[in-house]
Q: What sequence folds into this?
């Protein structure tokens, strides 16, 4: 096994033990860092989360992403943040207040779905807890006036508890 | 003679060689799987609440006057953070601090809240009023200061009868568990 044995039968055999050692170490490292309980969060490519030293890990909840160009609710409905969008013209106003209509409609649908699910679970005796929490993934440069309009839209659909997603500092 | 002995020993050792190639194949597949499923960027969360309009009448003022509780409001604008402390009995500001919107500035505000928690372990609510042009990044800086203790400050345990909201570690409690964004429904 050890190197070339000139004149022998296995003269071209490779010494695979060092490779095996490296692989073993790599597997142990990856297994130790492999999390099966944590939430695998997908963050949009055009979204940069602010960095924070917060220790609490993100738990699962319906997600609202606010990128520089759009508001995406639960990975589906997209509300463009362009000057042509009537809703967003309203939300860009400095003194603008209240909900964004299309966002509210989507939150209401989400809320109704959650309630239906909670009722079914309750009926089956699985869980009585109703999910009224949302996760917000906003780009770090998004001004509060847009965030506020999204929060107000969700608030009117009875979502009052939020989880603001941040990039953990120690992993950066 | 010695050459013969060496040759014989080598033949014996090679007879017990283990074929590691299948193991290597298995390891390769395992490594690819683990690398493909690994999460390299950890995402944290800052919990906040939005006030909910309620038709329930507020508690009578007499009751508030009897057991006044401290209230802390923080106002964030593009450059500064203002801390104001009053009580439920009176809206007269008892303590005020204005700091720049920097790591050092918000640390001073955390020190203020930490002092209140030390005096009153039941204190557990901070309301934040944010101006329209404040960036999400800056808001997170303030929220983090209100929530996450910075060294050398150590966690102050909540009273035993206090019911901590789910998701927080009772052994390592945050500075306050209720952070409310105050100006969501109405304009600034």
A:
């Amino acid at each position: 096994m050890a190197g070339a044995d000139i004149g022998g039968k296995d003269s071209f055999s490779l010494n695979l033990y060092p490779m095996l050692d490296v692989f073993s170490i790599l597997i142990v490292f990856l297994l130790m860092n492999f999390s099966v309980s944590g939430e695998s969060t997908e963050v949009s490519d055009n979204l940069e989360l602010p960095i924070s030293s917060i220790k609490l890990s993100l738990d699962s909840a319906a997600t609202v992403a606010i990128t520089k160009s759009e508001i995406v609710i639960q990975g589906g409905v997209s509300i463009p943040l362009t000057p042509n969008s009537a809703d967003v013209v309203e939300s860009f106003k400095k003194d603008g207040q209240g909900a964004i209509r299309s966002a509210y409609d989507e939150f209401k649908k989400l809320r109704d779905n959650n309630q239906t699910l909670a009722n079914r679970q309750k009926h089956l005796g699985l869980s009585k807890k109703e999910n009224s929490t949302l996760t917000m993934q906003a780009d770090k440069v998004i001004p509060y006036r847009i965030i506020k309009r999204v929060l107000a839209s969700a608030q009117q659909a009875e979502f009052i508890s939020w989880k603001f997603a941040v990039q953990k500092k120690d992993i950066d | 003679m010695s050459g013969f002995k060496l040759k014989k020993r080598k033949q014996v050792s090679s007879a017990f060689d283990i074929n590691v190639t299948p193991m290597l194949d298995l390891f390769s597949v395992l490594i690819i799987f683990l690398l493909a499923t690994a999460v390299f960027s950890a995402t944290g969360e800052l919990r906040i609440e939005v006030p909910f309009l309620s038709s329930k009448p507020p508690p009578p003022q007499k009751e508030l006057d009897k057991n006044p509780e401290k209230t802390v409001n923080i106002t964030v604008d593009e450059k500064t953070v203002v801390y104001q402390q009053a009580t439920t009995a009176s809206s007269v500001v008892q303590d005020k601090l204005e700091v720049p919107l920097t790591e050092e500035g918000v640390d001073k505000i955390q020190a203020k809240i930490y002092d209140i928690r030390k005096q009153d372990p039941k204190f557990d609510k901070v309301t934040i009023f944010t101006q329209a042009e404040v960036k999400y990044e800056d808001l997170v800086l303030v929220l983090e200061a209100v929530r996450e203790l910075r060294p050398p400050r150590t966690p102050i345990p909540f009273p035993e009868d206090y019911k901590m909201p789910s998701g927080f570690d009772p052994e390592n409690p945050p500075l306050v568990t209720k952070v409310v964004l105050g100006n969501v429904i109405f304009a600034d």
Q: What stands out?
A: Residues 71 and 87 of chain B are 5 Å apart (CA to CA).
